Amino acid sequence: xxxxxxxxxxxxxxxxxxxxxxxxxxxxxGANALAASARKKxxxxxxxxxxxxxxxxxxxxxxxxxxxxxxxxxxxxxxxxHRGYNAVRIDAFPQLIAGDENGKIEERxxxxxxxxxxxxxxxxxxxxxxxxxxxxxxxxxxxxxxIYVGLSTWFRGEDSHRESRLKGEDGFxxxxxxxxxxxxxxxxxxxxxxxxxxxxxxxxHGFDWLxxxxxxxxxxxxxxxxxxxxxxxxxxxxxxxxxxxxxxxNFMSSTLKYFKGKWSDEAFMYxxxxxxxxxxxAMDISMLDCLDVHYWFVQDGGLSGSTGYWGDIHAMPNDMNxxxxxxAMKAYWKEHKTxxxxxxxxxxxxxxxxxxxxxxAAGNTEGWGAVCWLDN
Length: 376
Prior knowledge:
By secondary structure, this protein is an alpha/beta fold. The protein has helices at 12-23, 28-38, 59-62, 73-82, 94-97, 131-144, 168-185, 208-216, 242-262, 301-305, 309-314, 322-358, and strands at residues 53-57, 87-91, 109-111, 127-129, 148-152, 192-196, 268-269, 272-273, 290-294, 361-363. Mean pLDDT is 84; it is low at 1-13 and 15-31.
């Protein structure tokens, strides 16, 4: 089994040290340019070694503005390589790269910041973005530094432009198809090691049609099947019933069949987040080219449930109880560290063993301790 999950094979510190040395000290662009230009097309399943991958979501573009954290792509990519990373996962904005249903291409989009709540990710101020130009420029800078790219999407929920492009399964396929063709036509697919068709399927994204179809099946529980149960991460979701699971399983398999048939040189997947209520194990794993399941320490009920995490931090009401909650979590971690690490090791092993069974790559592009923490 080839794997892009570094910790499966070696200690993280050793991995990062090796990656930094291989990158050639601080001259990342110069050191890697020749190797990158001569590099053959690879995917996660043909990589010779694991990669250390960072998750930059959609912020790489939405904070590419004056004063933004990603204002200078050269600087942040050099910093990424210096810290030992040689791959990055980003939102490719396929709903903006593709034309609308009439084929009209737009180059520039307005992205308002409609409130002044702290922005955990995405645009922290109102800005304009140029997705097509930006994606090509960013991808070329990654290639110059020998940094692989994993493409994904969140279909940003507040993006008003996506509705004219994302209409049902056909619209979903079309926007991704046009995006991959756009990148290929501009010579930017050689550095792509996988395409993640939808973030944390089927929950955390702005593809309203998919959410609506799953909601329609909410009342279709069979006799004796439990319909309502609080979801670990979002009480509005509840436990998915068999009809809902069957729908999103079939959607995933159908779309993967299309893309794997047309783009046979690429690796395709849907990434997942850990939850028993919306089980990733219910999917047809044989359709995936790699398995990316996101596990967080706060998914352990003891660490989160007994410390007030869900109400005081995750819901982000304010920061008034942060100190109290932080102290409670720190105390719980100190007392239960061994069992918490054992719990996480078991989750990681389950994913790795499942991937090995299907002879595909395994990895984790999001592994939070406590998400939604406002560092102050």
